[in-house]
Amino acid sequence: MAYDPGAIDATLAAAVGDEPGLIAELREAFLDSAKRSLKLLATADDPESWRGAALRLKGLAASFGAVRLMALAQEAADAQAGDSGVLRKLQRAVERL
C-alpha cells in the first residue's frame, strides 16, 4: 500500500504558506497526536473507548489530508474493539508518515 507523506506537507503548505520551519513543527505535532491516538486505541478497554479513539484519529487525519490514515481509522471504528490486525495496520501507517 502506497503512502504519500508529501500530501501532509502539501496540505500544511496550503494552510501556512512557504514556511518550512512552521510546516515541520505542525507535521511533528500531527505525528505526536497520531501516536497518542494510537496509544488510546491500543489501551481501550471497551467498545465505546475503542470507537472514540478511532474516530478521533480519523478526524485528526482528515484535518491534515492523510486520506489513507482516515480510511484505516474508519476501518478501526467499524471493527471489533481490540482488533489487533487493524491496530497493526494503523501503527504501520503512522510509522510511514
Word description of this protein:
This protein has helices at residues 5-16, 20-43, 47-63, 67-78, 84-96. It has five helices and no strands. The chain is 80% helix and 0% strand. The longest helix has 24 residues, at 20-43. It is elongated and about 45 Å long.
Which key terms come to mind for this protein?
97 residues, mainly alpha, 5 helices
Overall number of strands: 0
Mean pLDDT score, rounded? 87
Radius of gyration: 13 Å
What pattern of helices and strands is seen along the backbone? HHHHH
Question: Beta fraction of the residues?
Answer: under 5%
Specify the structural class: mainly alpha
Largest sheet: none
Quick summary of this structure?
The protein is mainly alpha-helical and about 100 residues long. Helices cover about 80% and strands about 0% of the residues.
How would you summarize the topology of this molecule?
Elements: H1 5-16, H2 20-43, H3 47-63, H4 67-78, H5 84-96
Helix pairs in contact: 1-2, 2-3, 2-5, 3-4, 4-5
